[in-house]
Amino acid sequence: MVEQDDRLSRVFGALADPTRRDMVARLAAGDATVSELAAPYDVSLQAVSKHLKVLEEAGLVRRSRDAQRRPVHLDAEVFDLMTKWIERYQQQAEERYQRLDQVLARMQGKDSDITQSTSEQQRGAAG
Protein backbone atom coordinates (compact mmCIF):
# COMPACT_ATOMS: atom_id res chain seq x y z
CA MET A 1 0.00 0.00 0.00
CA VAL A 2 2.84 2.40 0.83
CA GLU A 3 4.47 1.73 -2.55
CA GLN A 4 1.14 2.45 -4.26
CA ASP A 5 0.74 5.68 -2.26
CA ASP A 6 4.27 6.71 -3.27
CA ARG A 7 3.43 6.08 -6.89
CA LEU A 8 0.23 8.09 -6.58
CA SER A 9 2.19 10.93 -5.00
CA ARG A 10 4.58 10.96 -7.95
CA VAL A 11 1.68 10.87 -10.43
CA PHE A 12 -0.30 13.66 -8.78
CA GLY A 13 2.91 15.64 -8.25
CA ALA A 14 3.74 15.34 -11.94
CA LEU A 15 0.22 16.40 -12.89
CA ALA A 16 0.34 19.41 -10.57
CA ASP A 17 2.12 21.37 -13.29
CA PRO A 18 -0.19 22.79 -16.02
CA THR A 19 2.40 22.27 -18.78
CA ARG A 20 2.73 18.59 -17.91
CA ARG A 21 -1.06 18.20 -17.72
CA ASP A 22 -1.28 19.73 -21.17
CA MET A 23 1.39 17.36 -22.48
CA VAL A 24 -0.53 14.38 -21.08
CA ALA A 25 -3.72 15.65 -22.72
CA ARG A 26 -1.95 16.01 -26.05
CA LEU A 27 -0.39 12.56 -25.75
CA ALA A 28 -3.86 11.13 -25.11
CA ALA A 29 -4.61 12.04 -28.72
CA GLY A 30 -1.51 10.22 -29.97
CA ASP A 31 2.24 9.77 -29.69
CA ALA A 32 4.51 12.74 -30.29
CA THR A 33 8.21 13.53 -30.39
CA VAL A 34 9.86 15.93 -27.97
CA SER A 35 9.98 18.55 -30.73
CA GLU A 36 6.29 18.11 -31.46
CA LEU A 37 5.47 18.40 -27.77
CA ALA A 38 7.65 21.51 -27.43
CA ALA A 39 6.07 23.34 -30.38
CA PRO A 40 3.25 25.19 -28.57
CA TYR A 41 5.42 26.29 -25.64
CA ASP A 42 7.83 29.18 -25.44
CA VAL A 43 10.47 27.04 -23.72
CA SER A 44 13.60 25.19 -24.74
CA LEU A 45 13.70 21.54 -25.77
CA GLN A 46 15.72 20.97 -22.61
CA ALA A 47 12.85 22.32 -20.47
CA VAL A 48 10.37 20.07 -22.29
CA SER A 49 12.71 17.11 -21.76
CA LYS A 50 12.78 17.88 -18.03
CA HIS A 51 8.96 17.91 -17.95
CA LEU A 52 8.94 14.60 -19.80
CA LYS A 53 11.44 13.14 -17.35
CA VAL A 54 9.09 13.98 -14.46
CA LEU A 55 6.18 12.38 -16.34
CA GLU A 56 8.32 9.35 -17.14
CA GLU A 57 9.45 8.91 -13.52
CA ALA A 58 5.80 9.06 -12.45
CA GLY A 59 4.98 6.30 -14.95
CA LEU A 60 2.71 8.47 -17.05
CA VAL A 61 4.75 8.34 -20.27
CA ARG A 62 7.48 6.24 -21.84
CA ARG A 63 9.82 6.86 -24.72
CA SER A 64 10.68 4.42 -27.47
CA ARG A 65 12.68 4.24 -30.67
CA ASP A 66 10.91 4.11 -33.99
CA ALA A 67 13.57 4.26 -36.72
CA GLN A 68 14.91 7.83 -36.50
CA ARG A 69 12.06 9.07 -34.31
CA ARG A 70 11.85 8.81 -30.53
CA PRO A 71 8.12 9.08 -29.87
CA VAL A 72 6.72 9.61 -26.42
CA HIS A 73 3.78 7.36 -25.49
CA LEU A 74 1.14 7.88 -22.84
CA ASP A 75 1.11 4.90 -20.46
CA ALA A 76 -2.56 4.39 -19.61
CA GLU A 77 -1.88 1.79 -16.89
CA VAL A 78 -1.19 4.48 -14.32
CA PHE A 79 -4.64 5.97 -14.98
CA ASP A 80 -6.19 2.74 -13.70
CA LEU A 81 -4.32 3.26 -10.42
CA MET A 82 -5.56 6.86 -10.22
CA THR A 83 -9.11 5.85 -11.11
CA LYS A 84 -9.25 3.20 -8.37
CA TRP A 85 -7.97 5.72 -5.82
CA ILE A 86 -10.50 8.35 -6.89
CA GLU A 87 -13.40 5.88 -7.04
CA ARG A 88 -12.73 4.75 -3.47
CA TYR A 89 -13.13 8.28 -2.16
CA GLN A 90 -15.97 9.06 -4.54
CA GLN A 91 -17.92 6.10 -3.15
CA GLN A 92 -17.31 7.28 0.42
CA ALA A 93 -18.46 10.80 -0.48
CA GLU A 94 -21.59 9.45 -2.18
CA GLU A 95 -22.43 7.38 0.92
CA ARG A 96 -22.10 10.50 3.10
CA TYR A 97 -24.37 12.45 0.74
CA GLN A 98 -26.94 9.65 0.83
CA ARG A 99 -26.93 9.72 4.65
CA LEU A 100 -27.31 13.50 4.55
CA ASP A 101 -30.22 13.16 2.09
CA GLN A 102 -31.90 10.74 4.51
CA VAL A 103 -31.46 13.13 7.44
CA LEU A 104 -32.83 16.02 5.39
CA ALA A 105 -35.78 13.94 4.23
CA ARG A 106 -36.59 13.03 7.85
CA MET A 107 -36.25 16.67 8.88
CA GLN A 108 -38.50 17.82 6.05
CA GLY A 109 -41.00 15.13 6.97
CA LYS A 110 -41.10 16.43 10.54
CA ASP A 111 -41.37 20.01 9.30
CA SER A 112 -44.30 19.11 7.05
CA ASP A 113 -45.95 17.22 9.98
CA ILE A 114 -45.54 20.33 12.16
CA THR A 115 -46.85 22.55 9.36
CA GLN A 116 -49.85 20.27 8.80
CA SER A 117 -50.79 20.15 12.52
CA THR A 118 -50.41 23.94 12.81
CA SER A 119 -52.69 24.40 9.80
CA GLU A 120 -55.22 21.96 11.25
CA GLN A 121 -55.14 23.73 14.62
CA GLN A 122 -55.62 27.09 12.93
CA ARG A 123 -58.61 25.76 10.92
CA GLY A 124 -60.12 24.23 14.05
CA ALA A 125 -59.82 27.53 15.94
CA ALA A 126 -61.30 29.49 13.04
CA GLY A 127 -64.24 27.09 12.58
Layout of SSEs?
Blueprint: H1 2-14, H2 18-29, H3 34-38, H4 45-57, E1 61-63, E2 72-74, H5 77-126
Antiparallel strand pairs: 1-2
Describe this protein's structure:
With 127 residues, the chain is mainly alpha-helical. The longest helix is centred in the C-terminal third of the chain and has 50 residues. The N and C termini lie far apart (71 Å). 12% of the residues are buried. The model has no long low-confidence stretch (mean pLDDT 85). It comes from Nocardioides aromaticivorans. This is ArsR family transcriptional regulator.
Give the SSE order as H and E letters: HHHHEEH
* Largest sheet geometry: 2 strands, antiparallel
Alpha-carbon distance between the two ends: 71 Å
Determine the mean pLDDT: 85
Percent of residues in helices: over 70%
Q: Segments where pLDDT lies below 50 for 5+ residues?
A: none
Range of strand content:
under 5%
Report the structural category. mainly alpha
Provide a concise account of the structure shown.
The protein has 127 residues and is mostly helical.
Main traits of this protein?
ArsR family transcriptional regulator; elongated; HTH_ArsR_DNA-bd_dom; mainly alpha; two-stranded antiparallel ribbon; WH-like_DNA-bd_sf; ArsR-like_HTH
